[in-house]
């Protein structure tokens, strides 16, 4: 099992767009900042576009732009756009119903997982791209 870095990369992408904006940035330029393949960037940008966070324009001078003011985009918005679903997954194939733990573990965990998801989303909802851009500029000086 691995942990996804989609949220972190998407936050990087949008912080870069906000930092460099309003000029459009190419997926190749963004990939250079993230230090990954442009295909990875384009996949995440597609999810961010579906969520209404970014838009693109083709042709010379084209690229990707942030569609909302950085102060109006929270890390929760970004997380929801690229991760979807729950923070924790239950067994995909139900555990053994003949076992006392197997038949009850999922219901025992559901409330705990829901509370953890709510806490994560509440924390991510407190930080906007504007906060991150300010922090990045301070750290870069």
UniProtKB/TrEMBL annotation:
<dbReference type="Pfam" id="PF02082">
    <property type="entry name" value="Rrf2"/>
</dbReference>
<dbReference type="InterPro" id="IPR036390">
    <property type="entry name" value="WH_DNA-bd_sf"/>
</dbReference>
<dbReference type="InterPro" id="IPR000944">
    <property type="entry name" value="Tscrpt_reg_Rrf2"/>
</dbReference>
<protein>
    <submittedName>
        <fullName>Rrf2 family transcriptional regulator</fullName>
    </submittedName>
</protein>
<dbReference type="GO" id="GO:0003700">
    <property type="term" value="F:DNA-binding transcription factor activity"/>
</dbReference>
<dbReference type="GO" id="GO:0005829">
    <property type="term" value="C:cytosol"/>
</dbReference>
<dbReference type="InterPro" id="IPR036388">
    <property type="entry name" value="WH-like_DNA-bd_sf"/>
</dbReference>
